[in-house]
């Protein structure tokens, strides 16, 4: 069976129709509106804060430790380095961040002096030592058996404390306090150990290693 022949006019007309269809396709595609990004979730309204209870650590009930602290305070006030050297353990450690950087080739007093800046001309290190001597609380060092560090840290709900930054005061307002009117929770600690009934300064957690 023979198919009917198409005239040149029919071929051209068909070509124009096909071309028109394909030519208009991108136009319709471009006319589509761009996809909308999902709207961000609404920020929850700020509300009054809930007080976070803090349980302060108890004082150490040990007369020998109290006598040691009194002796340490007298040494700090007089800046008596020789007397202080007799209270520092030979294997003194200094951990400003993660590892012990105490120079084991030097004496304990030399490492303590560097850790607390006792040799500074401003006397800041001796003042810090006096403050540690006045601290009556200690906590066990989980990484060193028989070592206790002062001051002890209080107990509180850390998650609830973190949420305080996202709430308002009880009056519904944002509140501020001077930084020098508050104390940090946790921080640098002076550590001790009791060897044969005698207290010694065992190490220091904190400080600036490059000072």
What does this protein look like?
With 211 residues, the chain is α+β, with helices and mostly antiparallel strands. Helix content is 33%, strand content 14%. The chain is built from 6 helices and 5 strands, in the order H-H-H-E-H-H-E-E-H-E-E. Strands 1-5-4-3-2 form a 5-stranded mixed beta sheet. A hairpin with a 2-residue loop joins strand 4 and strand 5 (198-205). Helix 2 packs antiparallel against helix 5. The longest helix is centred in the N-terminal third of the chain and has 24 residues, at 8-31. The chain is elongated, with a radius of gyration of 37 Å. The N and C termini lie far apart (103 Å). Mean pLDDT is 80; it is low at 1-29.
Give a summary of the structure in a few sentences.
About 35% of the residues lie in helices and about 15% in strands. The chain has about 210 residues and is of the alpha+beta class. Strand 2 (about 140) and strand 3 (about 145-150) form a beta hairpin.
Shape annotation? elongated
Poorly predicted regions are: 1-29
Assess the beta-strand content as a share of residues: 5-15%
Give the oligomer, counting copies of the same chain as homo and different chains as hetero: single chain
Overall structural class, as computed from helix and strand content, comes to alpha+beta
What's the mean pLDDT score? 80
Secondary structure: helix percent: 25-40%
Q: Identify the strand order in the major beta sheet.
A: 1-5-4-3-2
In DSSP terms (H or I, runs of 4 or more residues), the helix count works out at 6
Distance separating the two termini: 103 Å
- Largest sheet geometry: 5 strands, mixed
Instruction: Tell me the radius of gyration.
Output: 37 Å
Number of strands: 5
What are the secondary-structure elements, in order, as H or E? HHHEHHEEHEE
């Amino acid at each position: 069976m023979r198919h009917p022949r198409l005239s040149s006019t029919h071929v051209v007309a068909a070509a124009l129709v096909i071309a028109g269809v394909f030519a208009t396709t991108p136009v319709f595609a471009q006319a589509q509106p761009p996809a909308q990004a999902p709207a961000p979730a609404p920020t929850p309204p700020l509300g009054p804060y809930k007080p976070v209870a803090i349980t302060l650590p108890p004082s150490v009930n040990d007369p020998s430790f109290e006598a040691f602290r009194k002796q340490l305070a007298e040494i700090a006030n007089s800046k008596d380095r020789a007397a202080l050297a007799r209270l520092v353990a030979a294997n003194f450690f200094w951990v400003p961040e993660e590892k012990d950087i105490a120079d084991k080739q030097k004496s304990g007093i030399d490492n303590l002096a560097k850790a607390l800046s006792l040799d500074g001309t401003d006397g800041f290190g001796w003042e810090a030592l006096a403050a540690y001597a006045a601290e009556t609380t200690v906590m066990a060092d989980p990484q060193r058996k028989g070592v206790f560090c002062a001051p002890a840290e209080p107990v509180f709900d850390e998650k609830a404390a973190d949420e305080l930054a996202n709430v308002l005061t009880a009056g519904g307002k944002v509140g501020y306090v001077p930084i020098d009117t508050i104390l940090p929770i946790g921080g640098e600690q002076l550590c001790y150990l009791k060897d044969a009934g005698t207290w010694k300064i065992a190490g220091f957690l904190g400080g600036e290693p490059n000072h």
